[in-house]
Amino acid sequence: MPTDIEPHPNRTLSAFYNDLFDSGFFVFNDEEPYFQEKLVQVIWNEQLVNTPLTTVAGDLLQIFHAGVWNVESGPDFHDAAISVNDRLQRGAIEIHRQPEDWFRHHHDGNPDYRRTILHVVWSNPNHHPTFPGNMPLCVLQHQLSVPLPELLSRIDLSLYPYAGKIHPGNCAGHFAELSDEHIADLLQSYGVARILEKSREISEEIVRNGLEQTVYCRFLDILGYKNNRPAFQRLAESMPVRRLSALTGEHEAMAVLFGAAGLLPDPTRTAVLPQHRRLVRGLWDAWWPHRRGGPDIQWNRHRLRPYNWPERRLLAAHLILRDNSYRLGRNIIQTMRRQTTPQESMRQLHDLFGAAADASWHSFYDFTRALEKPASLLGERRFQDLLVNLAIPLFFAACMMEQSAAQCEQGKQALLQVPKLQDNRLLKEAAHHFFMPPSRARDVVTNACAQQGLLRLYRDFHPGS
């Protein structure tokens, strides 16, 4: 297998997600663990479960009517019809994460719950046969009709309990009824779910292409940003990282990257700045033996700011890859595995990309021009993009492949440290779609994680976006 991350041989991706769910990974507000319990309610409402079910005591459980979702006080579902060992019962159903939540939520002694005929929970870590008293107890964790990762990816919690009653275009009315804390919790949960989707894609790419080539391709893709993502993708495919890592000359890797990219100026036709002439001659000498028929890469410079010029991005990539000995993927994972504070993790990750801050290159525009106002090859915003779109998803991918769900909290806490990224059209449209007034987004979309959640919700409502 072309990777130094070894997938866990005996466990599935669903088991990994179960571990995350059980550990409270998706809860952001401990006072109101909105995402978890509501997800169990949605599973019950949609009956995304095996047929027939069984209770913990081993009784056969058939669902004739799951009940009507209660939006007032009292049990979660009323007017349900079920049979336990062929004995028909009608009444209410209560949903919790675990059986003990019955008492944590003070249902004992509450007359509203006297007609409860079934207690449905996600997990039963203390192995109660019934709860409370002799009430039948049904655990859903291992009775789902679809794998949990698929379920998480396709359910839109924001629609419930009004799914089918309120058109998605009107869901701003539903959001208006929720507190800022409620919405922030929801968005951050969805943000983590979106990052986990990226992580699953990355893990599949690692199996196909190896760890370092996968990270290299995604790294260059992010550096391409809007204008030059296809160009950087073609470069990554035509000049794989294993070839770069095998080069030993002082400027050989830089020469091969710039040469393959078609960004090495011909000094016989173009005036090279005096400070770069010797370097450019050396790059041509190193590139010449490697020249071969490769792709003609087209770089899009239309309305491109000088700070985002492809030569600057490519130079940043070269310096970072070189300083990480072409093992950027390994270094990211090892850095995030260290048991440090989230703030220290951010600092250490920043150091991995620190070569782009080399002051000797701050004036670099390309080999023929200099910037009027010197600046780092990669600004802080691009570093944050790398965190959200590469480093943290990669760490989660490693956790998935090795089934180390317990380590995921490190990645979650790191993600919560990343401030909001640069605004874009989709985020602005989503704010107008979900919030009344749209300015409310400033209060609930407070970090990059919440932005990712908002984008995912908007994607679910607008598949073409």
Give structural notes.
- The protein is of the alpha/beta class and 465 residues long.
- Among the domains are: 49-143, no CATH class; 210-386, no CATH class.
- Helix content is 47%, strand content 8%.
- The chain has 19 helices and seven strands.
- The protein has helices at 13-22, 34-46, 101-104, 148-154, 171-176, 180-209, 211-224, 229-238, 241-246, 252-261, 274-287, 310-323, 328-337, 342-352, 380-402, 408-417, 425-434, 441-444, 448-461; strands at residues 53-54, 60-65, 68-69, 77-84, 87-96, 116-121, 137-139.
- Strands 1, 2, 3, 4, 5, 6 and 7 form a seven-stranded mixed beta sheet that branches.
- Helix 6 (180-209) crosses helix 19.
